[in-house]
Design goal:
The chain starts with a strand and ends with a strand. By secondary structure, the chain is of the alpha+beta class. The radius of gyration is 15 Å and the shape is globular. The longest helix is centred in the N-terminal third of the chain and has 11 residues, at about 15-25. It has one domain: 2,3-Dihydroxybiphenyl 1,2-Dioxygenase, domain 1. It has helices at about 15-25, 65-70, 85-95; strands at about 5-10, 30, 35, 40-45, 50-60, 75-85, 110, 115-120, 130-134. The chain binds cobalt (II) ion.
Length: about 130
């Protein structure tokens, strides 16, 4: 069911500092920051030859990553995103297997304009999983 790793997301307290670390210290290609108010984050994409890293900073008062940064003040790995061919088939299979889909269970449009779902981290060894229809 799972395809490629689409991206790995890291929550950071200061996007400018994190951008500089990836661009200048690690020598990676880094995008301009993009505000995604509907997701409560500002994101920078680190383009790697085989995948992307997304650096996420909270945006607004109700950001879904604010609580994560309270627990991890210096930042940390927030989720991993796997590609699936058909997100509805994937969801139905997971629900049948007892996995918990976050929210109302309906796919939302993700940062790349594709349908995404999130799976409860307690069902997958402490890691929040995002599924994106490729
Ligand atoms: Co993501």
């Amino acid at each position: 069911m799972l395809g490629r790793v689409n991206h790995i997301a890291i929550a950071v307290p200061d996007l400018a500092v994190a951008t500089a670390a990836y661009r200048d210290t690690l020598g990676a290609a880094v995008s301009q920051p993009q505000a995604l108010p509907e997701h409560g984050v500002t994101v920078v994409f680190v383009e790697l030859p085989n995948t992307k890293v997304e650096l996420l900073q909270p945006l607004g008062q109700t950001s879904p990553i604010a609580a994560f940064l309270e627990k991890n003040p210096s930042g940390g790995m927030h989720h991993i995103c796997y590609e699936v061919e058909d997100i509805i088939l994937a969801r139905d299979r997971l629900v049948k297997a007892g996995a918990r889909v976050l929210g109302d269970g309906q796919p939302k449009t993700g940062a790349h304009g594709k349908p995404v779902l999130f799976l409860h981290p307690k069902d997958f060894f402490g890691t929040l999983i995002e599924l994106e229809q490729a």
